[in-house]
Write a structure and sequence with these properties.
single chain; about 130 residues; mainly alpha; about 0% strand
Amino acid sequence: MRTIVENKGVAEIEQLVKYAIDSVTDYMKCKQYEQTERKRIQSCLQAITDQINSNRIKFDQYMKASFAERERLYSRVDKFLNYAIETGDSEFAKLSLNVMLQIYNKNPMDGIEDRLNSVNMNLLSQNTVKYL
C-alpha cells in the first residue's frame, strides 16, 4: 500500500518538476524575445536618427547651394537691367525683369527629393520576429 502512495507522490513531484521546467523555459524564451525586440527597436531608431541627421546636412548644403545660385543669377540679371536702363533699351529691361521674376518664382525646394534619401518611418512597425 505504501508503494502506491509513494508512486502517487512521485508522479505529483514529477508533474511539479515538469511544470517548473516548462515555466522556466517559457520565461527564458520570453526574456530572449524581449531582449531581441528591444535591440531591434534601438537599431531601428538609430538608423532613423542617422538618416534624419544625414538628410538635414544634405538639406542644409542644398539650400546654401540653391540660394547661392539664385544670388549669382540675380546679380547677373541686375547687371543686365542696369545696362538696359543706361542704354534706354526697354525691351532688354523688360526681359531682364521677367528673368528676375522667373528666378524669384522658382521654388528653392525643387529637386531636393532627388538629393535626400527617403526615411522609412515604418521600420518600427515591421516586426519580423514572431513570438513563440
